[in-house]
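Worked example 2:
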Amino acid sequence: MALAKIVYASMTGNTEEISDIVEEKLEDEGFEIEREECSDVDSDFFEDADVCIVATYTYGDGELPFEFEDFFEDLKDEDLSGKLFGVVGSGDKEYGEYYCQSARDFVEQFKKTGAIQGAELVCIENNAEDEDIDLLQTFVEELKSNLA
């Protein structure tokens, strides 16, 4: 059974809910799951995972959540070669060009680790609604189909 690990940061509860939905979808697909809030883990959290997932919100004008800053900075030094990664983000389109910027930043940071993007980035405005839940299902299906 493949191990998927999810790290999330949530201020309003939206991203936590999104990470919970991803966890449920992964379980439905037969994955073993570990899900942790980002302040409870270090960047080596993913070292034994088959699939690495980050769920983040974006703060202000495109900034990472403060609680994710150390994890983000240290992540680039991890060797995740051969592992799949996926990123989901929550945001507010009122921020225009900064909408889900932290999620996009995490995609780039994961690439520095040698990990392989296993699913397209999913950006959700505020909380997950029906069409967003469908996107998260597709996200999980992409990860599963790309797992060798």
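The longest strand covers residues 84-91. The radius of gyration is 14 Å.
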